[in-house]
């Protein structure tokens, strides 16, 4: 489904985005009291089909089962999965914007979600949930609209994107910009650079132990074409087949912009505005969003519950450790589930 945003849609940078739309999907039905809404904010290269990319947590017989919940997931602005992105034509010129697409921030992504919430007539959301960039969106939205959300669940995320995270994103953008085809502003531009960028990103998504466990060669005599190298190439090409370099640049820049305290008197003051009952989950092996960033969130949000997911998968654990996330959710909602 598509929702046309107010035209032109104002952005935090002062620019506007003309002809903007948001692609979204829903599952399940609103109950009689309209208090069973779960809104999912997705991560960097995901889409609105949460049942596809978060199986084990969303779907039939999962914790968030459409038989019980009205689930909403919207594709973020800038993404190439249906919402307005760099490949779409600028109404003023009739031509795609490509590398000239306006700067988006996490606040803009959250503002688009808010416009869609109002369009859908959802007065209150039972649970707002997201991991990584999705967690950044969820936090920002909960600060912007503290009275809308009853519960907030954020996993492997932060109050402000770190210099470490920004450096990883810049390294990826350098790889894309080093691909001469990116500057040709055409479909498929920057594909080779995007593959290299994904290879860089994977180093931050997994980590030393994960690679040693899954990508070590059993053949000690090998002198080239190592398993780890093949894995990097495979994952890079896999992303190229389903994503776009121009969108990747736009969304990594948006991720870099995440700073709850900007213009609000600092991070602590911003976190203090969140009223939702909050669960914060960190991943023990996450090198991109270390536990200290989750601990800062839990300490700053009144009454927040903090938990750690033991995992060897690194940052990707927020997508893979669904059994452990389910256990944490069952404990978090124990009283409510009993009722």
Automatic annotation (TrEMBL):
Active-site residues, record numbering mapped to chain: 132 (nucleophile), 286, 315
EC number(s) per entry: 2.3.1.31
Record-linked SUPFAM superfamilies: alpha/beta-Hydrolases (SSF53474)
Domain AB hydrolase-1: from-to ranges: 37-321
Catalyzed reaction equations: L-homoserine + acetyl-CoA = O-acetyl-L-homoserine + CoA
GO CC terms in record: cytoplasm
One biological process term in Gene Ontology: methionine biosynthetic process
Pfam families in the record: Abhydrolase_1
GO molecular function, one term: homoserine O-acetyltransferase activity
Residue runs in coiled coils: none
Principal place of residence: cytoplasm
Localization, UniProt: Cytoplasm
Catalytic EC class: transferase
Recorded metabolic or biological pathway in which this protein acts: Amino-acid biosynthesis; L-methionine biosynthesis via de novo pathway; O-acetyl-L-homoserine from L-homoserine: step 1/1
Keyword annotations from UniProtKB, A to Z: Acyltransferase, Amino-acid biosynthesis, Cytoplasm, Methionine biosynthesis, Transferase
Binding site for substrate: 198, 316
The family this protein is said to belong to: Belongs to the AB hydrolase superfamily. MetX family.
Subunit structure: Homodimer.
HAMAP family linked: MetX_acyltransf (MF_00296)
Role: Transfers an acetyl group from acetyl-CoA to L-homoserine, forming acetyl-L-homoserine.
Protein name in UniProt: Homoserine O-acetyltransferase
Record organism: Hymenobacter polaris
